[in-house]
Amino acid sequence: MAQGNSTFSVIGSDVTIKGDISASVDLHIDGTIEGDIKCASLVQGESSAISGAVTADSARMSGKVVGSITAKELVILKSAQIEGDVHYDALTIEQGAQVDGRFAPNGQTAAPKAVPAPKVSDADPQLKMAN
User: Fold this and answer.
1) pTM above 0.85, yes or no
2) 85 within 8 A of 104, measured Cβ to Cβ
3) In the chain, which residues have pLDDT < 50?
């Protein structure tokens, strides 16, 4: 698609795409996607199903997603069903939304480091059992 011709693209409810999607414009999905999606802004319709990772500056999810979601501004509506980890800068979740995964602010994808246990020295008081 040539840039400048359109400010958004729509994938209709009767469309199924198998493969990754990359768009520099806003994307509205009502159909089924089997692949990763990268776009500026994503609006997902209630009847839509996405199987793959979603990366967008802003995303408004209301359908089914099986895969991770990474967005600066993320809105999860009550009709959404998400199975995967969610990474965000700003997050809004409507009551009733279903999410089976972990939430983490962007930039905190690594697991926290374990804190080592303190060392016990001979000078520290210890409990000893009597014979």
Assistant:
1) no
2) yes
3) 1-3, 109-111
